[in-house]
Design a protein that fits this description.
By secondary structure, this protein is of the alpha+beta class. Helix content is 23%, strand content 27%. A hairpin with a 2-residue loop joins strand 9 and strand 10.
C-alpha cells in the first residue's frame, strides 16, 4: 500500500484533503471527456442520416427513368436449359428456340487427356510417364524399343478410339545426313505450305530452320501446331487436334519422311499439299514435292539414337509422346510397353443455342410478357 502521512499533531486527514482538491481540479477534464463522447455520437447520427438521404435520392432518381416502369419479364419453359433477359424495347410475344449446332467440348490442354502406363507386357524398362498432353486425342499407344547393333530405334503405334480408318498423306525424305535433323534450310524464301483439307484451303508459314542443325522434330511439331491453329481459327474452335504430324525412319539411314494424318476432321478426306506456283513454297524442303495417300488403321512414328540412354533423352526432348516424358529407374532396354490416353478429365461440355427473331433480346426466351 502507498504510504500516507496524516496529521500527527493536528489530527487532520491530509490525504483526504489532497484527494478532494484533485477531484475538484479534474472536473473540467471530465466535462471535456463527456463533451467529446457526445460529439462523437452526434457525428455518427449525422453520418447515418446522410447515407439514408443519399439512398433516398438514388431511389428518386430511378423513378425519373422510363425504363423503371417499362421492364419486361421473361419466362422459360425449362430454365435449366435456357434463361433470358429482355430490354425495354423488347416486343411482347412467344419465341421458339432452334439449336443450329451443338458446340464443341470446352477443352483445356493441360487436363484434356490423361496418359496411363499399362503394367502388363512392359519389358522396356520404362517405369513411368509424366507431363501434360499437348493434344486432345484418345486412344492407346504401343511402343517398341529395338537394338539394331549400330543404333537404337523407338517406334510408337497409336490406335485411335472412335476412328477405325485414318487418312494419311506421306512425303519423301526430309532428313539430313546428320541424324534427326532437317535436310534443307527453311527461311522466308521457302517457308510457306498451301494446304487443302475438306472444303478448306489455307497457307501456313513455318519457323525458320537450319539444314543439318535444326531437329526434324522441331519442324514437325511446328507444322502440327500451325495446321491445327489454322483449322481451329477457321472453324471457331479452341485447342482441338484435327491433324497429327509424324516422322518415320524405317532403317536409320537418314531417310526420315513426314506424314500428315487426318484424325478429327471429316471422314474419307486426305490432306493435300498444293503446288500453287509460288516461289516461297516449302514443299521440296519437307519432302512434299510428291506425296502418297493411303488409308491406315494406326498412326506410326519412329526416332533413332546411338544408344538407349540417348534414345530416352531424344524422345523426351522432341515431344515424341505428345507432351509426356518417360522415366526409367534402371534404364531402357529392348522391349515393349503400352500406354492409354483418355478424356476422363475433360471439362464439362457446353451447349450453344440461337434464337431467330425479336428485338433487344440479349438471350432468347420461350415467352415474353409485360
Amino acid at each position: 500500500m502507498p504510504s500516507q502521512i496524516t496529521g500527527i499533531a493536528s489530527g487532520m486527514d491530509t490525504q483526504g484533503l489532497i484527494d478532494s482538491i484533485m477531484a475538484i481540479e479534474k472536473k473540467p477534464i471530465d466535462r471535456l471527456d463527456n463533451k467529446t463522447t457526445m460529439l462523437a455520437l452526434k457525428k455518427g447520427l449525422y453520418t447515418d442520416l446522410s447515407n439514408d438521404l443519399i439512398d433516398f435520392q438514388k431511389t428518386l432518381m430511378s423513378l425519373k427513368l422510363e425504363s423503371t416502369f417499362q421492364t419486361k419479364k421473361v419466362n422459360s419453359s425449362d430454365s435449366s436449359l435456357i434463361t433470358a433477359t429482355a430490354g425495354v424495347e423488347a416486343v411482347a410475344g412467344s419465341y421458339t428456340i432452334e439449336t443450329k449446332q451443338v458446340a464443341q467440348n470446352a477443352i483445356s490442354k493441360n487436363v484434356h487427356s490423361k496418359a496411363k502406363l499399362l503394367p502388363d507386357n512392359n519389358t522396356s524398362g520404362v517405369s513411368g510417364l509424366y507431363g501434360v498432353s499437348t493434344t486432345n486425342i484418345e486412344g492407346s499407344y504401343e511402343f517398341a524399343f529395338e537394338d539394331l547393333t549400330t543404333y537404337t530405334r523407338a517406334t510408337s503405334t497409336l490406335t485411335l478410339d472412335k476412328k477405325s480408318s485414318i487418312q494419311r498423306t506421306k512425303g519423301g525424305n526430309a532428313e539430313g545426313t546428320t541424324e534427326n535433323t532437317i535436310a534443307n534450310t527453311i527461311n522466308n524464301s521457302n517457308n510457306r505450305l498451301n494446304i487443302s483439307l475438306g472444303d478448306e484451303t489455307f497457307d501456313i508459314f513455318l519457323d525458320f530452320a537450319l539444314a543439318e542443325n535444326t531437329d526434324l522434330s522441331d519442324v514437325t511439331n511446328d507444322l502440327e501446331k500451325k495446321i491445327n491453329d489454322k483449322i481451329n481459327s477457321i472453324k471457331g474452335t479452341t485447342d482441338v487436334s484435327y491433324v497429327m504430324v509424324a516422322s518415320e525412319n524405317p532403317n536409320g539411314a537418314s531417310n526420315t519422311s513426314i506424314s500428315l494424318y487426318n484424325i478429327d476432321y471429316k471422314n474419307n478426306e486426305f490432306i493435300t499439299i498444293n503446288n500453287d506456283g509460288g516461289g516461297d513454297l516449302a514443299n521440296s524442303s519437307l519432302g512434299f514435292s510428291s506425296t502418297t495417300q493411303t488409308t491406315e488403321s494406326t498412326i506410326k512414328k519412329s526416332t533413332t539414337a546411338v544408344d538407349f540412354t540417348s534414345l530416352r533423352t531424344q524422345m523426351n526432348d522432341e515431344n515424341f509422346l505428345q507432351g509426356y516424358s518417360i522415366s526409367s529407374i534402371d534404364g531402357l532396354k529392348e522391349g515393349k510397353f503400352e500406354a492409354a490416353i483418355s478424356s476422363s478429365l475433360n471439362a464439362t461440355p457446353k451447349r450453344g443455342a440461337r434464337v431467330d427473331g425479336g428485338n433487344s433480346i440479349s438471350t432468347s426466351g420461350i415467352s415474353l410478357t409485360e
